[in-house]
Design goal:
Length: 525
């Protein structure tokens, strides 16, 4: 990967031009402005190296491939603004996509025949300034290219941390804020987009703006959950709170879906940010007949208990696992067990099937990493991931269980990855933001986190389509999270009452439709 070329900028630009000119259909804006390309300060940071192009043309999903004409390795936000301004002023503009850690599933961070901005390049040039914690420890100013794992480690050094996370921490701040950023903390603290004070954003018109609920608020609310359509996040101010040291981590097993969801909804009803009796994390998942009770995201159950758990799954075909966490520190270590017992008292999990661990806070938050490294070592990480993530209204979750979990999933019998199912509180989300959720006060996130071989991912994709068709026929008001649609009509249906505002904001902040073409919302190419 070339960030700085050892040859003069002029020759670098000539090489770029010659590469682009050779491609029929994309060459026009570059041919007509060759002298301008040469004069750009960023000419030496644009790469057409084959390895750079190949890397930018794929993502974690390994399903979609879109080849850009060049990759920009910026050393500052100004480099990004220069690129956008050049395209915006071009008689034939080219598309631009910001790429962080490349964890998209369906090419959302790709730019076919355009330019991909490798955001992680800026980490090198920040020289340790990409995460700056305020003197009072109440917030951190974080570069959009920074990984959440680095935010965690940096803030913990000061004894503080953000409160809303994703399950997997090797994602960029700008990437998760462009979607929502959800995990087991969301029921109490809201998604990550509900935990931002302000941002620096470069719009599709190359305007470099600071935005917050009180300053450039239209841009602020547009960008959060905006799927990269309105601007590129270069800085976010994230609120911090005192960090716990350890967690009590509990899993409980159910064979009855109604009891499983009833208990989840009871637990998330205690959700005040300052309520010391509230849990700090809650998720749920399915356990099916796929070998070990543990999954790639964490090894939890004691090996000695594996036989009885497997026997339970074999008997019922689906077991529902409720997972909760209570944080604690030196001040609460003597009371946390009593508090947790009180919260969990009266739950309807199966007797003898509660399991508990006591681990460091950072170990819990970074629990997926060990599984990732194991899969990498086995060559099973960089494979197709035909994921499907949904938001389901509470009123329809029983129908979804009967028709999808007990129907489609069991009948097809191909699901070999993690399946998440857990509730959230709508009041923890801000409806002014672009993110779309169901209208009901409680809704569930359901995530089918499949992995497959390169020759059989379409079977999982077919299952995903069948699930969506079932929801449509059953009248389940489902909304996709990390959405993937192929027509404008589908996007209009997805956004519903928010579409008009979403479209107006696009015309306001990216009128030439330059940004994030891989989402295929306004430019289906």
């Amino acid at each position: 990967m070339a960030v700085n070329f050892p040859i003069p900028v002029y020759f670098t630009a000539i090489f770029i031009i010659s590469r682009l000119v050779s491609i029929i259909g994309i060459s026009q804006p570059w041919i007509n402005n060759s002298s301008k390309i040469i004069s750009l300060d960023i000419a030496g940071k644009l790469s057409v190296d084959l390895s750079a192009i190949e890397s930018a043309s794929q993502d974690f999903g390994h399903i979609v491939k879109a080849i850009p004409e060049a990759v920009l390795y910026p050393s500052s936000p100004e480099d990004i603004a220069t690129l956008i301004k050049f395209s915006y002023n071009n008689s034939v503009p080219f598309s631009i996509a910001a790429k962080g850690h490349g964890h998209s599933i369906r090419g959302q961070a790709m730019a076919s025949n355009g330019v991909v901005v490798d955001m992680t390049s800026m980490k090198k040039y920040r020289k340790g300034t990409g995460i700056q914690i305020s003197t009072d420890g109440l917030y951190a100013d974080v570069g959009g290219e920074q990984l959440w794992i680095d935010v965690l480690n940096s803030t913990l050094e000061r004894g503080v941390a953000p409160v809303s996370w994703t399950d997997y921490l090797y994602l960029t701040v700008g990437g998760t804020l462009s979607n929502a950023g959800i995990s087991g903390q969301t029921f109490r603290y809201g998604p990550q987009i509900s935990n931002v004070y302000e941002m620096d954003v470069i719009t599709g018109k190359a305007d470099f703006l600071t935005c917050s609920p009180k300053k450039n608020s239209d841009l602020f609310y547009a960008v959060l959950g905006g799927l990269g359509q309105f601007g590129i996040i270069t800085r976010a101010r994230i609120p911090l709170e005192p960090a716990p040291k350890r967690v009590k981590w509990v899993r409980m097993l159910y064979n009855d879906f109604f009891a499983f969801t009833r208990d989840q909804e009871l637990l998330i009803s205690i959700n005040g940010r300052k309520d010391k009796t509230a849990l700090d994390y809650l998720e749920g998942s399915l356990m099916m007949d796929q070998g070990s009770p543990d999954n790639w995201r964490s090894s939890f159950f004691p090996p000695a208990d594996h036989p009885k758990i497997i026997s339970l799954i074999t008997k019922h075909r689906i077991i529902y696992c409720l997972e909760v966490v209570k944080n604690y520190d030196d001040q609460t270590k003597n009371t946390v067990d009593k508090e947790l017992q009180h919260v969990l008292k009266g739950l309807s999990y199966m007797p003898g099937f509660m399991f508990e661990k006591d681990v460091q806070y950072v170990e819990f938050l970074n629990r997926v990493r060990s599984g990732e490294l194991k899969l990498m070592s086995q060559g099973l990480w960089d494979v197709p991931h035909p994921w499907l993530n949904l938001f389901i209204p509470k009123s329809q979750i029983e129908n979804f269980n009967d028709g999808v979990f007990k129907g489609i999933v069991l009948e097809r019998n191909i699901t070999n990855g993690l399946v998440l199912v857990y509730p959230m509180n709508r009041k923890k989300w801000d409806n002014k933001m672009s993110a779309v959720i169901p209208d009901e006060e409680i809704f569930y996130t359901v995530g089918f986190l499949h992995s497959s071989g390169f020759d059989d991912w379409e079977a999982f994709d077919d299952q995903n389509k069948e699930i969506m068709q079932f929801c449509d026929k059953a009248g389940i008001g489902v909304k996709q999270y990390l959405p993937h649609y192929t027509t404008k009509e589908q996007w209009i249906h997805h956004f519903g009452s928010k579409w008009k505002t979403f479209q107006q904001r696009k015309y306001q902040f990216d009128p030439k439709m330059l940004l994030s073409p891989g989402q295929k919302i306004f430019n289906n190419n």
